[in-house]
Records
---
Amino acid sequence: MIGTFPSLEDLRPNPDWAKLPIFDRKGWKRMPFGAFADSINERVEPSDAAEDIYVGLEHLDPQNLHIRCWGKGSDVIGTKLRFRKGDIIFGRRRAYQRKLTVAEFDGICSAHAMVTRAKPDIVLPEFLPFLMMSDKFMNRAVEISVGSLSPTINWKTLKLEEFDLPPLDQQCRIAEILWAVDEVSTKYYQVFDVIETVSTAIRNAVSDSNYPKKRLGELAILITKGESPGWQGFEYQDDGVVFVTSENVLFGRYEPSPRKHIPREFHQKIRRSALQKGDILFNIVGASIGRGCVLPELGKDANVNQAVAIIRLNENTAMPEFILGHLLSPKGLKDILGTAVNTARANVSLDSLRKTLVPFPAIVVQAEICERLASFQKNRDSIMEDLDALRSLRNAFLNSIFGVCQ
């Protein structure tokens, strides 16, 4: 099925793109961002929008212009922002995550997002999202963010930042090319969703089976949570011991980016959060609660922060991939999240995890089921590789147009 898509080799960026007439920069104008885009600050209380679609930053996939999941206004508290179909929702908090999407419906979103709307007489709504996805824009967005733990962009600062804009007819031609690339990406995501649906069906069948049940604490040699090096003056660094956060723990997959590092001496101070290959990582705090993965081989020491639980199993009796399959099934998540305590941020206790009942067939049965799930995982990984290649194509194209902010 994937083979019917355009060959990615045929879509590799031409290094001479910038010399083509479509990229002729005659007539381009440099102007402040606020001159061609507005920040829409229409605030709304979830109680007044209980049935509305709610989009949080946790619902946005990095570098994906489409919203693939969402919640409802009744799921959240606190003031939110109203967005309309065609608006751009940009994650202004932790902009390095590159979360930016074009709304295909009306709804409300997190106040940690920025709702941006094009001024169509200056910039085409179809063109603006690609300008904002460019390295030129994103690198600058990170540079002007303020705050250490959760760096955030202020509109008063962003609106003064200057960018180069081509004439409207040139914007139209560039946007047509980039939306064509996006259409191919969308087809890959559709195949990905089919594979995910089948994988979920297998996990559901296991969870609903008549296999014997055991408490997770009986199968694990360790259930604990991570720890953060929160000492005064601490800063992450470019190299050293890998420091995993809840951002790296996706639904069934470990995402190495963003990659953070801590000095080795801190690794020694927070030994309880040290990780091993095969550990189950399960997010227990905040918006990403309920996501989990099996830690792959990282090739170096690693620690994890306090928002993530570490579940280390007795390898002779339980396979991490099998147990994770149940934890991520609808039944498993319902059982676990049903114990979550809603304080300032929802959280699941380690004691609740230890008491969680999981199916426990013979190890050979676990291995057979894991083999099936692994085959689907292999297909998912292949799709992700192709999607990464498409992103590289798009980014090279954008950099040919806008350049890179150093």
---
Amino acid sequence: MQGVVFPGDRHVEIMTFPDPTPGPGEVVLEMKASGMCGSDLHQYRRSASGGASSTGLPPNPNPTIVGHEPCGVVAAVGPGVSPAEAKLGQRVMVFHYQGCTQCGHCKSGWQQLCQEVPVKVYGNNAHGGHAKYLAVPANTLVPLPDELSFSAGAAIACGSGTAYGALRRMNISGRDTIAIFGQGPVGLAATQFAKAMGARVIALDVNAKRLERAKEFGADEIVDPGSNDPVAAIKDLTHGRYADLTLDTSSNPTARLNAIRSTKVWGTMCFVGEGGDVHIDVSPHLLRRQLTLVASWTFSNIIQAECATFCVERAIDVDALFTHRWRLDQADEAYKLFDKQADGKGVFLM
């Protein structure tokens, strides 16, 4: 089979790999959709000479198929996999991490937090979904409801699931006003979910097209920080109270600081964007406002399944996130466009 590989320095290669066969406890998926995620760009842009990935793990020295938003059907089942874990033809997403499987973090569904072994991240240091087939442990499978498309499942497998997990982490409610900094795929999904949860949403981005999409996805107010003081705008829109909750998906240091400054006294601010830094004046920005800072890294497999159910029950059009649908042989063109970070979300369909 052919798979997409990032050799470094913004290059893409389509390489040939053996079709996988399932080992004990494993299944092979026939891929139907594999999403493109913003964190892919850390690998795509990484120097060919090496360096740590966005996960903090060293890259696999061997050519590794990328793509950590896999969705497909079970095509083969290995020894020791019970019918309760996987059945041939079953529609599934993949929880794209595996730890030791036995520690408290792993058993509670948070395998990416495992401290016992180097964590496998499918699409990063282990083969991912940008190929025809993918072999993964059966314990990483999350059922895909029949009401959702494979592309929707791919989005929930990371980007949209990350947005949902962050909102859950902040305990958002219909009483809240939330300001969401960055309206790329994760920020736009957060806007979509926050509205479905009943919140009032203020969407911020410097890209006019993304702000327009945020409005289409339910944002009550839009703010361009490039032409407005975002802190002052949020203060004005909340009658001097500031936002109950703020969420930064951009990783931009200025946006992160503005998100903190835009949060009300006793409010909560959440970091979800990977990488970068922020410099905080602790006393005025945090201590004297009793602010809560939260970091949210993806989600558990339980929350992934919950997100899918939420999308079904609230009739959320997850597929509306996608502006581009690609074939695997278009991967070079797809990532060149995605690298500009000026448009919406892309997905490879098989």
